[in-house]
Design a protein that fits this description.
The chain is α+β, with helices and mostly antiparallel strands. Helix content is 27%, strand content 37%. The chain is built from four helices and 13 strands.
């Protein structure tokens, strides 16, 4: 089985606990900044949040809902700005046997490009060795096909794609409040991560929670810890674990109890928070296939901003 499929299933658990949303596509261009005399250029910033737990460490639902709303909005903005960057992503997979011993190690290194607003991965190395001339040529041909397809996209197809993206974005915004309803959060500590002061909150499934959407049905089977920057309302680190088996699709896969995901982000160019490190263990069974037991690590580096405006841009084109 390909690594990317394992990653997608694992991230399902992660995104459900964090904000319950799919990656958000670039938003439409902002409205004009033209204004009438005396009109403000932007709405005033909301007041800072000061979490106030009770004697047991439990934080009120009102505070949690407001905090998660701001974290979700920040994440949406980060995802939009991610499409202004190219970067290098390395994935290392350790396949384990029934006793937990490593039986195979593989790695893939890709350059992540943005082509007409769509992220595309170009494979540049396997097991830390550059691709052969033949494999490199195949990758270039694949990238060119993707470029041509997006470049020649019809207006109708583009409209449908944008409508779907907007629906995903709106569903995510609605769902985030269910996270606050699904868990009892406790403020357990204050920590400094990479120079940022953070709140450390633990989330435990709340008895009696009734999911309102298909995605939220997984929430009672997850618990986790989240580190949130106190100043920027940005999640800095996540540690999520499944507490029971999760079935994905109709007999498609079963993610076993104990699957764990740890994610760290970092601030880039003093303007955006982007992935830094992902480490997770996956124990699952796919359809009628045998169990898959792997440890996976991802690292992200060499973030390079290639555009500064909001127009659709293709990597390789000249930019002002």
């Amino acid at each position: 089985m390909r690594f990317r499929s394992v990653y997608a299933l694992s991230v399902l658990c992660l995104t459900t606990l964090v904000v319950g949303q799919e990656p958000t596509p670039p938003s439409p261009a902002p409205p004009s900044n033209e204004q009438t005399p005396g009109e403000q250029t932007s709405a005033p910033s909301p007041p800072p949040i000061d979490l106030k737990p009770d004697a047991s460490g439990t934080v009120s639902q009102e505070q949690i809902r407001e905090l998660l709303r701001r974290v979700a909005e920040k994440d949406i903005e980060n995802d939009k700005r991610l499409r202004d960057y190219t970067y290098i992503q390395r994935e290392e997979q350790h396949r384990l046997d029934g006793k937990g011993n490593v039986k195979k190690v593989e790695s893939r290194t890709t350059e992540v490009l943005v082509i007409y607003g769509e992220e595309v991965q170009r494979l540049i190395a396997k097991d830390d060795k550059p691709l052969s001339e033949q494999d490199a040529k195949k990758e270039e041909e694949r990238i060119q096909k993707i470029t041509d397809k997006r470049k020649n996209e019809s207006e109708s197809d583009r409209r449908k794609r944008l409508e779907k993206e907007e629906k995903n974005r709106e569903d995510g915004r609605k769902f985030v409040l269910e996270v606050a309803d699904a868990y009892d959060f406790r403020l357990v500590d204050f920590e400094t991560l990479d120079g940022h002061e953070t709140w450390v909150l633990d989330g435990e499934p709340r008895p009696g929670f009734e999911p309102k959407s298909r995605a939220s049905k997984f929430l009672p089977k997850l618990r986790g810890r989240i580190w949130i920057d106190k100043t920027e309302m940005q999640w800095v680190k996540l540690d999520v674990t499944t507490t029971d088996t999760i079935s994905v699709g109709l007999f498609l896969a079963r993610i076993h109890k104990g699957t764990r995901i740890v994610v760290e982000t970092t601030k880039v160019n003093e303007e955006v928070w982007l992935p830094k490190h992902v480490d997770f263990h996956v124990d699952l069974r796919l359809a009628l296939l045998k169990n898959l037991n792997v440890d996976v690590e991802q690292t992200f580096r060499d973030y390079k901003k290639f555009r500064t405006d909001t127009k659709i841009t293709v990597v390789g084109e000249s930019h002002e």
